[in-house]
Every structure is written in structure tokens, then in C-alpha cells.
Amino acid sequence: MNNILKKICEDKKLELEILKKKCSLNSLKKLISDQINKRDFKNVIIKSVEERKNFIIGEIKKASPSAGEIIQNYEPIEIAKIYERAGVKALSVLTEKNYFKGEIDHLSFIKQNTNIPILRKDFIIDEYQIYESKVYQADVILLIVSILSDEELKKFLKIANELNLDCIIETHDENEIKRALKLDYPILGINNRNLKNLKTDLNNSVSLFTSISKDYTVIAESGIKTAKDINMYNDLGIFNFLIGESILRSKDYATFIKKLLNNG
Predict the structure, then answer these.
(1) Strands (E), the chain
(2) Which of 66, 120, 56, 123 is nearest to 90 (CA)?
(3) Annotated active-site positions, please?
(4) What CATH number is associated with residue 233?
């Protein structure tokens, strides 16, 4: 598959042009309310590492380019409730429409029905999306190093901080790790999936983790399927995981999550 990430970002630009005509950035900013409740993600996930406790960010999505349609009768609010009851500590909600069949209003619906932090999982390439994330009550946003320049990363982190949004800086290779470390932001994600060709390698987090100082909290993302995988990461010192597809493909979300956590 020829660089699916590039195609997603191109489509995202077109989508944003249409959105901005319907609601300008200035109009969007006016929709941000002081009443929006911010759930702490950053300090909670850092504390989890200090206590050597496994922290699962449970991903909620209908489909993906690598897996196709995962769930036919997609009920994100119900999935979120099951995840929370089973011990997931944060929720990752896919809001990208074209490739993941997500909707941005799922963020606020899930926020009203749960008590744990919510990550907006999308391809953020414009400051407009950061303000949008706040309006729809996300607590955390994902900034993907491979699709942003160093200047954009700094600018977007500054805006997120002003809006009281936590971030995950997502990386995939050594060069992206070096760029991310220059930002001096404490939470780094290492994606085991190469977003350009969608291939997954569990050892990607293993090999890259060793080059990151203990001052950073690392999240292993993608391809984690068993308690054995979690044990392997725990032995290295990784206790944070973003897991979606393996949970969603299991017959019983709660049992699967508990199995991962109890054996982790």
C-alpha cells in the first residue's frame, strides 16, 4: 500500500477546508466553554509508571485501513462503558471519518457517559483541530511527529497547553524519537505500526525504548495482543499501552482486558 498516511493527510486538508467555511477558527474559539471539565491524563499516566502499574488506553474504532471494518454494529458509548468497568484507565476515540469511520461528536457523547480521560485519536495537521478537540471535550490529543514539522509540533504543543489539553507525541523510528525529545514533553508514544505501509513489529518499541531517558513516560502502541506481550514490555520498564484492535476483535471485551491486566 503506497503511503496511506500521505493520502489520509491530503484528504484531511480537503475536509478542513470545508469545515472552516462552515465554522471559522474565530467562531470555533468562541465555542470553548469554561465549563468544560478536564480530566487529568498526564500526571496519572506518569504516576502509573512510578508505581509500576499497567495502564491501558483502550481504543474505540469502527474500522481501520489495516483491518477494514472491525465492528458492524458500532456503539462507541457502550464500548467505552465496558472498557472503563474492566479497568481501562483512558479511552482513545478515533474521530477520523474516511478511513476509520469515526465521528468527532463521539468524544462529547463518551465524555458524558464515562469518568476517565479521553484521547482524540486523529491526524492533527492544523491548529483548527486542536480547538475543535477542546470544544468536543477531549482531554488529550495525539501529535504524530511524522506528519508535522518541528515548528508545527512546538506551536501545537503551545496551543494545547493554553487550552489545558494533554498530549501524546507519537513516534515510530529513531529520527522521530530525536525530534520528539527536543520538544521536552514528558509523554511519548512509540507506534509499532508503520503508518506508511501498515506493517506492525512489536519489537519496534523494544529497540527504541532504550534510547529514551527515564524522564519520559513511554506508551507502546499497536499490535499488543496477549499478557505475554505486556510481560515482555514490563521487563523492560514499559507499563503504558494503547490497545484497540485485539480488544475489539475479542468476543468479550471485559474478560480480555482483565486477562491482559491481571497477567501484566
Answers:
(1) 55-60, 63-64, 68-69, 90-94, 118-121, 140-144, 166-171, 187-191, 217-221, 240-243
(2) 56
(3) 59, 61, 121, 170, 191, 221-222
(4) 3.20.20.70
Give the Cα separation of 257 and 243 in Å (integer): 10
CB 110 within 8 A of CB 93: yes
Would you put residue 39 in left (φ > 0), alpha (ψ -120 to 50) or beta?
beta
Report whether 256 contacts 250 (CB < 8 A): yes
If you average pLDDT over residues 97-120, what whole number do you get?
97
| 177 CA to centre of own chain | 17
Helix (H, G, I), strand (E, B) or coil at 22: helix
Q: Provide mean pLDDT across the span 99-117.
A: 97
Burial class (CB in 10 A: 0-12, 13-18, 19+), 239: buried
d(CA 240, CA 187): 10
Whole domain around residue 46: which residue ranges?
Answer: 4-262
Q: How many domains does the chain have?
A: 1
Contact 208, 186 (CB under 8 A): no
Cell 465496558 belongs to which residue? 82
CA gap 200, 256 in Å, rounded: 21
Examine the pLDDT at 195 and tell me if it is beyond 90.
no
**Per-residue model confidence (pLDDT) at position 153:** 98
Q: Which residues of 191-205 are buried (b: 16+ CB within 10 A; e: fewer)?
A: bbbbbeeeeeeeebb
Contact indicator for 109, 77 with CB cutoff of 8 Å: yes
